[in-house]
Amino acid sequence: MTIDHVSSPAHVREGGASDIFLDGLFTGMIGALAVAIWFLVIDLMNGRPFFTPALLGTVLLHGSQAAAQSIAIAPVEVAAYTAFHFLAFLLVGLALSYLVTLFERFPIMFFVILVLFLCLQVGFFFLNLALGAQLLGKLSPWSVIVGNVLAAVGMAAFLWRRHPSVVRGIERLWADGGPENS
């Protein structure tokens, strides 16, 4: 056995569940950090550091009626939402890692991943509406879309680097004429 064989990416992925778990953790952290940093930059540019996690933490802990009032940047709300945010992204990262592993064996999973991504985007806006229209005026839709795209690009880049056969699988799907010919 040569050293090249031991360090090859294909050999690393043979570990199974532990590699899916670690990939999922890293994927989720990349997505969560991308969104958190994006909103920190926006909040800093608006002269209100940590406003977004304070707003969402207020909704999480006190309900949408509390968000209709003036938002205080309080450590408890910021920490509560930050923990919720990272946990949610870790769960999404784990799911994506598992789906990408399935994709390596079943290329049609690309469309499942695409639908999941679109459902998460639409789901956020429905959650926003369910929690209260007050958030729509305080959290701009374009900033949410940009944050989600940044997270998606970061997570996809990490997973595609870890699973280079995914890109070839997508190319093969489109060359074969899409999902009906798979």
- Cα distance, first to last residue? 37 Å
Cα radius of gyration in angstroms: 19 Å
Helix proportion: over 70%
- The figure for the number of domains is 1
Task: Report the strand count.
Answer: 0
Shape from CA axes?
elongated
Largest sheet: none
* Count of helix runs: 10
Strand content: under 5%
Structural class label: mainly alpha
Could you spell the SSE succession in H and E letters?
Answer: HHHHHHHHHH
Mean pLDDT over the residues: 81
User: Runs with pLDDT <50, length 5+?
Assistant: 1-13
How does this model look, in words?
The chain has one domain. 81% of the residues lie in helices and 0% in strands. The protein has ten helices and no strands. The protein is elongated and about 55 Å long. The model is unreliable at 1-13 (pLDDT under 50).
Could you give the topology of this structure?
Layout: H1 3-7, H2 9-13, H3 17-45, H4 51-62, H5 64-67, H6 75-105, H7 109-131, H8 134-138, H9 141-162, H10 165-175
Helix pairs in contact: 3-6, 3-9, 4-6, 6-7
Summarize the structure.
This protein is an all-alpha fold and 182 residues long. The chain contains ten helices and no strands. It has one domain.
Key attributes of the depicted protein:
mainly alpha, 182 residues, disordered N terminus, 81% helix
